[in-house]
TrEMBL record:
This is Cohesin domain-containing protein. InterPro entries: CBM2/CBM3_carb-bd_dom_sf, Cohesin_dom. GO terms for molecular function: carbohydrate binding. It comes from the Bacteria. It holds the Pfam family Cohesin. The keyword Signal applies. Residues 1-22 form the signal peptide. Keywords: Signal. Residues 27-144, 292-394 form the Cohesin domain.
Amino acid sequence: MRNFYTLLLSGLLLCLTAGLNGQTLGISLSDVDGEVGETVCLDLIGENFVGISGMQFSITYDTLVLEYVSATGNINGNNVSLINNSNRPEVIRVVYAPFSSTGYTDPGPFVIGQICFRILQEVETEVEIGSSPTPLEFTDDEGNIFEDEDDVNITNGTVNSGVVGMATCTDGVQNGSETGVDCGGPDCAPCMVTPTCSDGIMNGNETGVDCGGPDCAPCMVTPTCSDGIMNGNETGVDCGGPDCAPCMVTPTCSDGIMNGNETGVDCGGPDCAPCTADECGAGSSQFNLCIEDVCDIAVNAAFCLDITVSNFTNITGLQFELNYPAANLEYTSFTSPSALGAALQLNENADGDIRAIYIDSDQSGESLPDNTVLATICFTNETASTTVIEVASLQVGDTDG
């Protein structure tokens, strides 16, 4: 299951929704027919694109009927990423982020790419465009963001329209009137549901997995000081109480736990080194993205800020926005170190709105040490007042989905 963490630092999350200047933006998939074992390809088609500078959405399909083979995409020479991960085989994530100051305009219809499948069953099935797990979102070069399916005409693709396969008791699929895979119902042999004491399941009259109750051997519940479980009179795992050796509870400055007189994990208090308060995400187990503070910047002077991360583990994708008062700062440049397998890309959506995106090219996941500088972004200061740069719309994906 794909997990996303949304983190809002220093203020407001800005969500923009607007119409596409009266145009009806459309995204669709073509229909196709084929035989079992044949590879067929559906066209991904765009229509009424007006200044479109980015898009993302999900495509889902039935893995019992279709097997993913390949996908490619391209808009005006810029790559459209179509990503299918083994941990979510039923999902194809579509991402287009050229970071051009001028969006793409084409009344269409025009072909964005192709998605190819191998047909596993001779039945009608839909390939659907939607908002889960990757939210549907289109942006244009005027800074508008379209997040609702009401703003976009969506047409799903159909494979083998009108074909109804005949269910059998040997096709390896629960279909027809079956109550299990190739069993049950009026047409197939009954499903085997009789519990046994060796089926690896706690069922029937058992009180544990394949043990207990009137039919199976008693469950082994006698606690010991070496069974890897805190049970019996133990006060910890295999320690403490009247039967086992005392648990080692003396806190140290290197045990990875905030205990004793510590004010942070292995730091602070009278016994350990002081905690470093300016480390990004200190003491946190979640993904953190931080922007450093700078002070005493003269009006019209140039300055740069480091964007750092912590708990950056097995990350496959990242996007966020930097929002600030346009009258206070003028964005000038950014640099990104080579620590990532693929470049972090930044695009000035509008004055006061910068969008960043990173996609791991092979989706194997990238990990960085805590407090690694992800990017350095530079501005010209145009005010003597305090300016807050907010991180908004942060989304992070990892190899666990």
